[in-house]
Specification:
Blueprint (H helix, E strand, L loop, with lengths): L1 H20 L3 E6 L2 H4 L1 H16 L3 E6 L2 H10 L6 E2 L2 E2 L3 H25 L4 E5 L6 E5 L2 E2 L5 E2 L4 E7 L2 H8 L3 E5 L1 E3 L5 E4 L1 H12 L3 E6 L14 E3 H9 L7 H13 L4 E6 L5 H7 L6 E4 L1
Helix pairs in contact: 4-5, 7-9
Length: 288
């Protein structure tokens, strides 16, 4: 009997959060271990379905860097990087689109649908969802380098997302954009998630990562990080590498009207539910 009471108490703890977030969009950047490990894939799909069933509108944005690299090697093309960014010629962008749109996107959609959800896959080309322009990569010495068909979001057309939400579907978005001349751009998935969260005025942006969250100079988890402190940690080199676009994405979302942005550990089963429906939450919350 005691266990049953505890279960009800846990449900009741979630109630105010369900009430608060009902009818609102939550953008989830899906990647890392959560996207690679079979057991975590399943809990992710179930989390997303639960959110949808209680009236929250999850919007999934996914990456796929390692999978792109693996297919390039299988096709005999060696990936080239400049300052951590993939050099993307026309042949590479075709491979990127094949992997992100044709393979990973459909796997995620299939997984959610297999578990009883209603997901639909989109790329930035669908309904001109992501209008993009070429993004020059800035090296540490300040030099801007052209690394090919790597883009940044110029404009988000949120209509296709809203249409799917209104009809009870979960949008799953591949970070491939389209330029003014119809050319294809590979865009950093973290930055796409931030732009989509801003365009939707989402309640939350959640980045799933392979670390606890952002750590300070002392190596301890920072539970709340303001913009000025984030800028200080970037300058000090404490926030670097793959965490930089997640912080940039979070700040962009907040500037665009997203209520809250979080960077959490996707290796934890049901990480999304822990963040959304418990008092303590997990990971790092970014604030302006």
């Amino acid at each position: 009997m005691e266990n049953q009471v505890k279960r009800v108490e846990i449900l009741m703890e979630a109630l105010p959060y369900i009430r608060e977030f009902r009818g609102k969009s939550v953008v989830i950047k899906y990647g890392g271990a959560a996207m690679d490990q079979a057991d975590l894939k399943e809990t992710f799909a179930l989390d997303v379905i639960l959110l949808h069933l209680v009236g929250i509108n999850p919007v999934i944005v996914h990456g796929g860097g390692p999978q792109i690299g693996a297919l390039m090697k299988r096709l005999g093309k060696e990936p080239t990087f400049v300052g951590g960014m993939r050099v993307t010629d026309e042949e590479t962008v075709e491979i990127v689109e094949m992997v992100l749109v044709g393979k990973i996107n459909k796997e995620i959609v299939g997984l959610i649908n297999h578990h009883g959800g209603k997901a639909v896959g989109l790329s930035g080309k669908d309904g001109t969802l992501l209008l993009a322009r070429r993004r020059l990569h800035r090296l540490e010495n300040g030099t801007a380098v052209d690394i090919g068909l790597v883009g940044e979001v110029e404009r988000v057309n949120a209509d296709p997302i809203r249409l799917l939400e209104e009809r009870g579907y979960i949008p799953v978005i591949a970070p491939v954009g389209v330029g003014g001349g119809g050319e294809t751009y590979n865009i950093n998935a973290d930055l796409v998630a931030g732009e989509i969260a801003a365009a939707l005025g989402a309640e939350k942006l959640i980045h799933l990562t392979d670390v606890q969250g952002i750590q300070g100079k002392d190596g301890k988890l920072v539970s709340t990080l303001a913009r000025k402190d984030a800028e200080r940690l970037v300058k000090a080199g404490v926030i670097d590498g793959g965490m930089l676009p997640k912080v940039e994405s979070s700040l962009r979302a907040l500037e665009g009207g997203t209520a809250k942005a979080h960077i959490i550990d996707g290796r934890l089963p049901h990480a999304i539910l822990l963040e959304l429906f418990t008092r303590e939450g997990i990971g790092t919350e970014i604030v302006l």
